[in-house]
Known about the structure:
By secondary structure, the chain is mainly alpha-helical. Helix content is about 65%, strand content about 5%.
Amino acid sequence: MKPELLEEQRESWGSRGGFVLAAVGSAVGLGNLWGFPYKLYSYGGGAFLIPYILALVVVGIPIMILEFSIGHYTQRAAPDAFKRGHKRFEIVGWWGIVLAFVIITYYPVILAYCISFLGYSILGIFNGGDLPWAGKGIEGVTNAHDFFFKDYLGHQEGTALGSIRWNIVWPLIIAWVLMYFCIFKGVRLVGKIVWLTVPLPWLMLLILTVRGLTLEGSMQGLAYYLDPVWSELAKPVTWRYAVGQVFFSLSLAYGIMITYASFLHRKSDLNNNALIISIADFATSFVAGLAVFATLGGMAFVTQQAGNPVRVENVAESGPSLAFVAFPYALAQLPYSAWFSFIFFFALVTLGIDSAFSMTESILASIVDKTGWRRSIVLPVLSLVGLSFGLLYVTQGGFNWLDTIDGFVNGTWGIAFMGLLECIVLGWLWRIGTLRRHANSRSDWQLGRWWDYLIRLVIPILLGTLFFWQLFDDISSGFLFRIEAEYQSSLDESVISEELRKDFEDKGSVISQDATFTVEQAGMSWLITDEENKYLLLMKEEGRLNVYNSEGGFLRTPGGEWKLPNCVGLFIVALVPVFAVILSLVRGRRDVEQPSSKEADFSTRGRYGGVVAFLLALIPAVGLLVILLGSSIPEAAESKLGNPVFWLLLAVGIIAMGLSNHLVDKHNTSSSQVSWFARWAGILATVDVSAFIAVILLGLKGGVKISEETMPIRDKLSGVSYIILGAVFLIIIGGLAWCFYRALLAANAGKGIQHPDEVGDETAD
Length: 765
C-alpha cells in the first residue's frame, strides 16, 4: 500500500479520552445488563468467570486490537478499510455494516421501551410514588408481566404483526431524534457527548448496586449469582456461551471499532486502548450483575416475609423480560420506588443510546467514504429509513420478530460468522504482521508474534467451532420445519393429554402429582418424571407445546409445519452477504490506488508446498462429509469418536493447517509473497479442524439440555464466592492500573512519534 494513502486529512477525535469513552459506550450496551448476569447465573455462577475471562483474553482483546489496527492503518471505515488490502475484500467490510443496519432497525425500539418506562417513572414521582405495574408477591409479578406484555406492547402470540402500537411509536421517534443529534456534527461532537452518556450509567449502576446490597435478603440473590457450580465447567456448552458472550458484548465485527479507530490521530495508542475498553466492558457487566441479583434477592426476601414468596430463579430471565418485567417488579418493592425506577431506566437509556448511535455512525461513515456524499444528507435519510423499518417491531406481534431476528444477527449465524470471516481474511489473506507492526509503533506496550497466531489460527478455530456446533444442533433439532416424530418413552402416553395441553396453553397452572408421575412447573416448562427417574420436558416455545426426551432430544409438536420465524431470520442473515456484494460492486467516488510496481513485482513462493497443503486439507473435508451423510449428526458424532479413521482425518487437517501456517510465515517477507494455494489451504484446514471439534463436542453430549436443579435459599455467600469476588475486582482494578501505568511510562519516555513502517511490510497482499 502506498504511504501517500495515509496522508489524506480526516476528521479526528478531540482527545484520547473521548475516543476511549465512545468505544466503551459502544461496547457497553443493554446486553451488559441482561445478558451477562443471566448467563453467569445459568452456567455455573462464579465458575462461569473462568471460561469468560479466558475468552476475553484469547478472543475479545486480540480482535479489538485487530479492528483498531486496520481502521487506524487505513483511516477508513470498514468497507474501504478492507478494500485497501484488495478490492475483493470490500465485501467483508460491507457484511458487518449490513448486519449493523439490521440491528439499528430494531435496537432503537428497545431504546423506546426504556424511554417509555422512564416516562412512567417520572409520572410516578409526581403522583406520590405510584407505578402502574406495582404489586406485592405473586400479584406483583403478574402485574409487571401483564403491564409490559398486555398494556404496553399489546402483545399477541404467533407470527402476525397486527396493528401498530402508537404509544411506542412516539418514544421510537424520540430515540431516533436523540441518536441524530448525538452524531450529526461528527465524531468531535460524539467525543464530547460520551463524557456525559458513558459515566452516567456507571453512576446509576453504582447507586443501584449500593442500594441493592443494603436490602435485606440481597445475599440470596448474590448467592444465586456468584456461588460456583464447578460441574458446569465440564460441559462444553458453558465454554460455548462464555466465548459467545465475550464476542457479542464487545460489539466486534460490526465495523464500529474499525470506524472509530479510523478517526484517531496518527500518533494514537491502539493496544492499550483496546485493553482498557475490554476491561471496562467486563467491569460494567459484572457490576450490573451485582445490582440486578442483589435487588432481586431483596425482592425475594420481601415476598417471603409477606407469606407469598417469589423465588429469585422464577424472575431471573434473560433478555428484555429481565429489564421490563423482573426489575420493575423488584424496584416497586423498594421505598421511594419511583425514584429508583427512574434511576434504573435512565441508566438503560444512556447505556442504549451509546450503542445505538455508534452503530449508526459506522454505517454513516461507510456510506460517506464510499460515495463522498455529505453527512448532512446521508444521516437524515438513514434515520428515516431506520425509523420506517422500526415500525414493523412496534406492532402487536413485533416483539416476537424482534426477539427472533436479534437471536440470528447477534448469534452464531450473524456476528460470530462475521468475526470468523474477518479473522480468516486478515489472518491468511493480508499480511497480519504489517498490522501488528503498525500497532506496536504507536502503542504503550507491544504485541508479539503470538498475536499473529491468535488471529490466524486460534480465534478462527474457536469461532468456527461455535458456528458448526450451532449448525449441527439446528440441523438435528428440526430448526426450520416442525416434524412430529415417533413418540417412544417409558412414560405413559396419556400424560401428554389434550386436557394437559389445554391447561398448559391457557393458564399454565400447576398440575398435581400422582403415584406414578411427578410433574413440576419451572417458568414456561413442565418436567414430568417417573419412578425410574426418566423424564419428559414439555416446553412452551413460540406458542406451541414441544416435547423433549430425557436426553434432550426433540420428540414432537402438535403437527408438522414450517417454523416461519426461523425461516425469516435465516433468510435475513442470508440476504446480508447478498447486499454486501451489491454494495461492494457499486462504483465509489474514486478507485483505490493499486500497489506500486515494486510491490507488484514480489516473487511468489511456496507454490508446491501450497498445493500439497491444499490437497491435504481436502482429505478431512471430504471425509467429514461422508461421515455426516451416512447417518444423523448426533448419531455420527457419538459413533465415530471411537473410530480411528475419524482421528486420523483430524490429524491430517491439523498437519495441513500447520504446513500452511509455516509457508505463510516463511514466504511473506519484504521481497516475496506466499502462494494463494498456501493461503486457501490454511483457510480450508482451519475450517476442517473447527468442524471436527464441533463433532467431538456433540459426541460428548455438549448440546444436551440438562434440567436445572432448584437451588436452596441461602442468605450468605460461600467462602469460595468471596474469593471469586475479590479475584474479579483485583483483575479489574489491577488491569486498569497496569494500563494507566504503561500509558504514563510511554508519555514520560516521549513516545508517540509516528515511525513509518517499511514500504514492503506496509503492503497487504
